[in-house]
């Protein structure tokens, strides 16, 4: 360990210096995957300890993002599919999410909930709404917290909101169909007013997005890493930024 730590520190500093010549993404999305598997491989009988370790890692990630100048971070904490998990697993996970969201507010991050809040238990939905209200005026990094989130559900919600808004203005279906374009829908997404994600990171070795930011990721760069989320280190984050910065982004091709 005495030899490993200095080498790790030197490698981290080297990566940080190299980033000076690269563009930093404005918006980073992260699929925080692998909490349960990390708990099992760590010999922990209680998988909720994996979720708790993953929650603690969130605050490290936000600190790293703040250091390099990322403006928006979107974190997928719970999908709509996850809501069907057994209550003995889901309930403790929801309590961890509620505590995490409250702590985000206390530590000065601007919280923006994303997801079908109507599908969540009242205490969880309330914690998300209260954090959003309390931090709405905070400057700096925006933290999108995706809970009860699904990419297809987001698009359906956006279209539904668009139809309601246009109906309230007296617009007919025929008139809307005549002038509808992608920007009209984008204005009703959970991330409306924010830049689309430049970089999407998924931990745990899975190489798919599972519907994460389905609409917004059309031109995103993807980075997949093998480590489980609780074991995600700053060097993995810096490698993701290095990979992003070294790419020649060809939008639409």
From TrEMBL:
CDD domains: Cis_IPPS
Sequence similarity: Belongs to the UPP synthase family. Z-FPP synthase subfamily.
EC number(s) from the headed UniProt entry: 2.5.1.-
Function: Catalyzes the condensation of isopentenyl diphosphate (IPP) with allylic pyrophosphates generating different type of terpenoids.
UniProt KW keywords: Magnesium, Metal-binding, Transferase
Binding-site list for Mg(2+): 33, 221
Residues that, per the record, bind substrate: 34-38, 51, 79-81, 85, 202, 208-210
GO MF annotation list: transferase activity
Xref: Pfam families: Prenyltransf
Cofactor binding notes: Binds 2 magnesium ions per subunit.
Assembly, per entry: Homodimer.
Catalytic site: 33, 82 (proton acceptor)
Protein name listed in UniProt: Isoprenyl transferase
